[in-house]
Amino acid sequence: RYLGVWISLQCNKMFTVNQVVQDVKSAIAILANKKLTDKQLIYTYNVVIIPHVEYRTQLVHLSE
After folding, report:
1. Which domain of life is it from (predicted)?
2. Taking phi first (over 0 means left), then psi (-120 to 50 degrees means alpha), and beta for anything else, what does residue 2 get?
């Protein structure tokens, strides 16, 4: 682990993908119980969740 990015010598991207999926599920579970407006949810998604996913997957090439 280096600066929050997991690096594998075996080029196994599934570990990183699974971590990102768990992080997103955790964020969804936390936000599901909050009383937020649609604009607040969109802001949180665009400013917090998306950059977090992009940072964690910098070294992983994801297909669609």
Report:
1. Eukaryota
2. beta
* CA angle 63–24–45, rounded 5-degree value: 95
Q: Where are the alpha helices (DSSP H) in 1-64?
A: 13-32, 38-44, 50-56
Cα dihedral sign for 46, 17, 62, 25?
negative
Domain boundaries, the chain: 1-64
pTM beyond 0.90, yes or no:
no
5: three-class secondary structure by DSSP: strand
DSSP helix/strand/coil, 10: coil
Q: Measuring CA to CA, how many Å separate 53 from each of 35, 37?
A: 24, 23
